[in-house]
Amino acid sequence: MKDEWNADEEVDKHTWADVVVLQSPTNWMGFPWIFKKYMDEVYTAGMFGKMSQNDGRTAETPKKNYGAGGLMQDTKYMLSLTFNAPEESFNDPNEFLFAGKSVDDLYFAQHMNFKFFGMQPLPTFACFDVMKNPNIENDFKRLEAHLVTNFSE
Predict the structure, then answer these.
(1) What's the pLDDT score for residue 152?
(2) Residue 153's pLDDT band (boundaries 50, 70, 90)?
(3) Domain 7-57+64-151 is classified in which CATH homologous superfamily?
(4) Which residues neighbour 42 within 8 Å (Cβ) at sequence distance 6 or greater?
(5) In angstroms, rounded to a whole number, what is the distance separating the alpha carbons of residues 100 and 126?
(6) For residues 108, 111, 117 and 123, what is the CA-based torsion angle, rounded to 10 degrees?
(7) Domain coordinates in residue numbering, the chain
(8) Element counts in the chain: helices (H) and strands (E)
(9) Taking burial as the number of CB atoms within 10 A of a residue's CB, which of 98, 102, 114, 135 is the most buried?
(10) How far apart (Å, rounded) are the C-alpha atoms in residues 109 and 95?
């Protein structure tokens, strides 16, 4: 990801796309700071008419439907993530850090950002243990199978 971007052009790319694929390392349990900056700038530029109409609430119901104003219901997104953590550290209540939580639980806030815009999730893809015990060949095979499963018609 480059350091500078045109927020309006990036919004146009999102609204043009049928699927937005986000490939990212996991840094401190989420996206790296540069991608958070990108989201802050680009997704804020997409508010109020391009990616969302508003936050979903109306003057008549100001306490209901927060987050339901998205305009991108026909757009899907997929998270493709890398972790230093081994796969076994997820979905196991006996594991110390994640305590039974999944990758998607860890990325809940990011999923909510896309839901806010009305986008539909595709299954998340993840590569695990990429620093201490990488299995790159197998990861590429799993990615290919994931893409075939989710993008073939």
Answers:
(1) 86
(2) confident
(3) Flavodoxin domain (3.40.50.360)
(4) 5, 7, 10, 11, 14
(5) 17
(6) -150
(7) 7-57+64-151
(8) 5, 4
(9) 114
(10) 22
